[in-house]
Amino acid sequence: TVSASASRTMKGLFLICTLVSLVGFTNSLVDKGQLAELTETYQQMKEVLEKLMDERRLINDRLSELITTFINVIDPTTALVKKFAAEYFGDFLPVEVLMKKMKDIMVEAKSAIDKTNDDFGIKMVKLQQRMKKNEILINFLEEQQAEL
Questions:
Q1: Could you tell me the end-to-end alpha-carbon distance of the chain, in angstroms, rounded to an integer?
Q2: Residue-wise pLDDT tens digits, 35-66
Q3: How far, in Å, are 75, 85, 86, 87, 103 from residue 92 at the CA level?
Q4: Within 10 A of 108 (CB to CB), how many other CB atoms are there?
Q5: Does the predicted TM-score (pTM) go above 0.85?
Q6: Nearest one of 140, 134, 141, 136 to 29, comparing CA atoms
């Protein structure tokens, strides 16, 4: 019938108008200059993030290695100092107690640093995931821009 045919035509025209409106709306939201600026900002943020993660790894590795070395050296040093102190000062200096306390402090410091680094690592992973989502969005917008 005429009314069914007109209804289909109107639905088709409505769909076409909606698509044209959406394309125009999308085009007006992100023009080429804004997209280029967004892409450049994203690349700068990505480079800063990568540099920060590399620096974090380097500092974390060196600090952890330094503390571990210190902890490993405390026991032999304690034995030497204890021997020297006993020879010259008798039991006057509580060397073993002092060195144990120093070792305990270093072990606590290493644990705190490791926890802080783990927490920071989790935040960095979340930031990387957000950056990846932004990259996907930028790629989508670039594809849309190219199609227009």
A1: 38
A2: 788 888 888 888 888 888 888 888 888 888 88
A3: 20, 8, 8, 11, 21
A4: 10
A5: no
A6: 141
